[in-house]
Amino acid sequence: MWVYTYKTNPDGTLKGCKARIVIRGDQQKPSAQETYAATLAARSFRTGMAIAARFDLELVQYDAVNAFVNAVLQDTIYMRMPTGHRSPGKILRLNKALYGLRQSPLLWQKELTAALQALGFQAIPHEPCILIRNGILVFFYVDDIVFGYRKEDTATAQALAS
């Protein structure tokens, strides 16, 4: 189905419109495949903020645009086009995850973690949403990513984030 979002300015005027095609996960056939994706626990976020305050770390927040569609599907999944766009006898095969697909959050988490590990980040034990590399801290909650670093590491952190 289509999901429409209207973005407004602080004064209430229309800033822009966004349309996104999503999967109806409630209509997806159940499978034995793992779908749980870890999220950053509130206590871990508070601990990260305390560390940032204690060591005077710079914090930069990023939003991964259309995060889930960056994750490649391993399974073969088909979907019907939404009403108004259907062609008789035709369905679509998905190559990338879409919002609403039961396994999308887990696939995105694996994709992001693999990319960060390829850059040399290591996961913190027992906290899959926090990674560290030479004093540069990265924590994420679904598609929101925060880099924490010392001022002298600004150039390195910016290079890693881009």
- Alpha carbon gap, first and last residue: 32 Å
**What does the main sheet amount to?**
5 strands, antiparallel
Give the assembly state of these chains. Answer: single chain
Strand arrangement in the largest pleated sheet: 3-9-8-7-6
Strand percentage lies at 25-35%
CATH class: Alpha Beta
CATH level 3 topology: Alpha-Beta Plaits
The total beta strand count reads 9
Class by SSE composition: alpha+beta
Would you write up a description of this structure?
The protein is an alpha+beta fold and 162 residues long. It has a single domain (2-28, 36-161), classed as 2-Layer Sandwich (Alpha-Beta Plaits), CATH 3.30.70. It has helices at 42-54, 104-118, 154-161, and strands at residues 2-8, 14-21, 58-63, 78-79, 92-93, 122-124, 127-133, 136-141, 144-149. The chain has a 5-stranded antiparallel β-sheet, sandwiched between helices. A hairpin with a 5-residue loop joins strand 1 and strand 2 (14-21). The longest helix has 15 residues, at 104-118.
